[in-house]
Design goal:
Number of helices of chain A: 9
Number of helices of chain B: 11
Distance between the termini of chain B: 19 Å
Radius of gyration of chain A: 19 Å
Order of helices and strands of chain A: EEEHEEEHHHEHEHEEHHH
Number of domains of chain B: 1
CATH class of chain B: Mainly Alpha
CATH architecture of chain B: Orthogonal Bundle
Oligomer: heterodimer
Order of helices and strands of chain B: HHHHHHHHHHH
Helix content of chain A: 25-40%
CATH superfamily of chain A: P-loop containing nucleotide triphosphate hydrolases
CATH superfamily of chain B: MetI-like
CATH architecture of chain A: 3-Layer(aba) Sandwich
CATH topology of chain A: Rossmann fold
Distance between the termini of chain A: 21 Å
Strand content of chain B: under 5%
Number of domains of chain A: 1
Structural class of chain A: alpha/beta
Largest sheet of chain B: none
Structural class of chain B: mainly alpha
Largest interface: A-B, 37 and 32 residues
Chain lengths: 291, 277
């Protein structure tokens, strides 16, 4: 689970995104830098959470990595050393609104990526059922999305993204639309699924607790322009669950530290295993550039 | 544990009544009571000659007898078949033009925006006002009548198809695109199924409207068909026959709408949000 060695599975180099928005007073188009100079190396199987205030370009980042938007600063995305620009099945995208196809039942939704992949009609249901089982929805294959609860829909969306076996999972606030209790259940399940499927994950969230619970590293962003403020290593032992974390003092310390980073409070350094890997973010970027 | 809780959220038809036989009777009663009452009032009023024009107001029983006579002679069936054939041809060709055109216009936003003002203008032309124009150009034969139906069907279906394509949730497109779906597949597996309920609504509305338009067309110039028969009997003061044909048209229109509504409901059950939480 932890990042092993220095072989980067995914490398994001200097991603940048600019929008043009009309100023209300001057009525002129003004440049708005949503994301600026975002660089990150991610080891295979690592779980990276990105936290930041609204409008810090997190979703923009995921769109760029997914290939749905272009980085307008000449930035590049490498997966296994190859440059990628267009969307493809090596990246699985899971959205906040699930985006299940309502005219397809659970099985057919999960099969969608397999169709795109060119998997034969015979093999599709077999593979799809395996992933439906993984998200514990066996027995619901024939149900339509409108017959499922929010939590179940999100599990279908996860199964759909896992089924075509992408290298990396991009998750854009996937649990923001479900209630608090379901959210905790889904977090524990994601930890469990991640343990089984061992995917590299890029996870955007507004919840610090969620980020600390799930991730190996938490990327803390600054707003307008969205830049990396600090990367905090989460050294908490795995497997983790919500229940364990609530009892863990280290967890509380890490949540507090990230909260301070987000609220621009000078971090209070504390000893012990939970201290974040210090160092300025500039070091991190330099390091990844050298590798 | 949470699974058990979520399973319970799926409730299948909680409104289902206890006794199925009672339920069937209730449904039949609800569906027919108002109509039966209306027919009885008509019958009694006509027999007691409560209206000032009893000649023009025959009892239901007389209308039924006239209709049975028409049926026995075969006129009724011939007229129904002729009218339905016209409606079907115009309808079929209308859909063949409207659906592909609507998909294209909806998909290519530029063409849609370019054509929209013209389409709105055409749509708002009263169809019946166009009938004499069609007759001038194409005579009073079959072609004019089929064309009038085609014209009617075209606008309802076309505009619904366009808005259906444009109303596709961008989230669905984003989800499909993120998997590297190409344009053709995106269109076939996302845009088309998402637009289908809109298209079908257009089809259902135009089916009903096309019957109305056909009747009007047959009254204006024809020598066969339901509209013609009704017009003919009215001209010859055979009032029970005239009413008989009016009823037949109402029944055909209602039946058509009923069938299409059921097809719509069962085909697009996924649209029903009743089961969602």
């Amino acid at each position: 689970m932890a990042e092993n060695g220095n072989r980067a599975k995914i490398r994001l180099n200097h991603l940048r995104q600019i929008y043009y928005i009309r100023n209300q007073q001057t009525k002129r188009l003004e440049e708005f830098v949503a994301l600026d100079d975002f660089s990150l190396s991610i080891a295979e199987g690592a779980f990276i959470a990105i936290v930041g205030p609204s409008g810090c370009g997190q979703s923009t980042l995921l769109d760029i990595v997914a290939g749905l938007a272009r980085s307008k600063g000449g930035g590049t995305i490498e997966i296994d050393g190859r440059n990628v620009a267009k969307p493809a099945l090596d990246r699985g995208f899971i959205m906040q609104g699930y985006a299940l196809f309502p005219w397809r039942n659970v099985l057919r939704n999960v099969e969608y990526g397999l169709e795109v992949k060119g998997v034969s009609r015979k093999k599709r249901p077999e593979i799809a059922r395996k992933y439906i089982d993984l998200v514990e929805l066996t027995g619901f294959e024939e149900r339509y999305p409108n017959e499922l609860s929010g939590g179940m829909r999100q599990r279908v969306a996860i199964a759909r993204a896992l089924a075509y076996d992408p290298v990396v999972l991009l998750m854009d606030e996937p649990f923001a639309a479900v209630d608090a209790q379901t959210r905790e259940t889904m977090q524990d399940e994601l930890l469990d699924i991640q343990g089984k499927a061992n995917k590299t994950v890029l996870f955007v969230t507004h919840s610090i607790e969620e980020a600390v619970l799930l991730a190996d590293r938490v990327v803390v962003m600054t707003p307008r322009p969205g830049r990396i403020r600090r990367i905090v290593d989460i050294t908490l032992p795995r497997p983790r669950t919500n229940a364990d974390m609530r009892a863990s003092a280290d967890y509380g310390v890490l949540v507090r530290r990230i909260w301070e980073l987000l609220h621009d409070v000078e971090p209070t350094e504390r000893g012990g295993a939970a201290t974040a890997s210090g160092g300025d973010i500039a070091d991190e970027i330099d390091l990844s550039a050298v590798l | 544990m949470y699974m058990a809780r979520e399973r319970k959220e799926i409730i299948i038809d909680p409104t289902r009544p206890q006794n199925p036989i009672a339920a069937v009777f209730k449904r039949i009663f609800m569906a027919s009571a108002a109509i039966v009452a209306f027919l009885i009032v008509w019958e009694v009023a006509a027999r007691l000659e409560l209206t000032s024009v009893p000649t023009f107001f025959p009892p239901i029983s007389a209308i039924a007898a006239a209709l049975a006579d028409e049926a026995a002679k075969g006129f009724l069936w011939t007229n129904i078949l002729i009218s339905l054939r016209r409606a079907l041809i115009g309808f079929g060709f209308g859909l063949l033009v409207a659906i592909p055109l609507g998909l294209a216009i909806g998909w290519y936003r530029f063409f849609g925006d370019l054509l929209n003002p013209l389409l709105q203008l055409f749509r708002n032309l009263p169809t019946l006002a166009l009938l004499p124009v069609f007759m001038m150009f194409f005579g009073i034969g079959e072609f004019s009548k089929v064309l009038v139906i085609l014209w009617t069907v075209l606008w309802y279906t076309l505009l619904n198809t366009i808005s259906g394509v444009r109303a596709v949730d961008p989230q669905f497109i984003k989800a499909a695109r993120s998997m590297g779906t190409g344009n053709l597949r995106l269109f076939a597996t996302v845009v088309l199924p998402a637009a289908l309920p809109f298209i079908f609504t257009g089809v259902r509305i135009s089916a009903t409207v096309s019957i109305l338009v056909l009747i009007a067309a047959e009254m204006m110039g024809a020598n066969s068909g339901l509209g013609y028969a009704m017009f003919f009997y009215q001209g010859n003061f055979l009032i029970p026959q005239m009413f008989g044909y009016i009823f037949v048209m109402a029944i055909i229109g209602t039946a058509l709408n009923f069938i299409l509504e059921h097809v719509e409901k069962s085909a697009f059950r996924w649209r029903d949000d009743a089961g969602s939480t």
